[in-house]
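Project channel, design review

CF: Before we commit to the Azomonas agilis constructs, I'd like one complete example in the thread so the newer folks can see what an input/output pair looks like. Taking NYN domain-containing protein.
RD: sounds good, go ahead.
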Amino acid sequence: MDEQIFNESNGHVLLIDLENCPSQINQLQGNLTEYTKIVICHAQSNAKIPLGWVVSLSVAISAGKLIIMKMEKPGKNSADFGICFFAGSLMQELPKNTHFTIVSNDTDLDHAVYLLKAHGRSAERVGIHKNEISQNINEELNMDIAPYCNHLLMYAGNRPAKLESLMNSIRSKYGGTEIVAESIYKQLLSKGCIQIKESKVIYLDDKIKAFRLHN
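CF: and here is what came back for NYN domain-containing protein:
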């Protein structure tokens, strides 16, 4: 934390470089209770949010607590420029005791932190270390297939017929990255819940029932 004393009762802004730290999206629901304002900048990130979060995120956006900015032109540093713009804009708008946290592994954003401090603000950049990234990936690879098996049983008459639509369905259900979708798909395949023939999906209900959630 910055050398200046930061009181949790003061304002706290979170600026997320989603291009650089896509796994941070998984923390968004909790972040909304911890920060007074959150800004997410991205250019072409494939990070997805669970459908169950849509209402709460919409409320946060309407209240001005959450800003999601897709940069008009994708580029290597486009999200960085967005972060810098909002850092400067919010510095002018918010009380002087507001603390700024930038989530990014890009050390170039240390310049934004330096400038915030130079103008008397409390600021820091927080990166996601390699071991944390590995942990996030391992958690995604260990996703439970039971909820999706329940989903397949509940909507037995409207199951994805092709591999591509199955993958889209898994992404929508879990709101995860490509790693999550691939993990769930491979588990369904290896445990005999599905078979793929010429890109068409065959469902084996006995296996699906065996791996469903039990109340």
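RD: helpful, thanks. Residues 139-210 form a domain with the Arc Repressor Mutant, subunit A fold (CATH 1.10.10).
CF: Confidence is low (pLDDT under 50) at residues 1-9, 130-135, 137-141.
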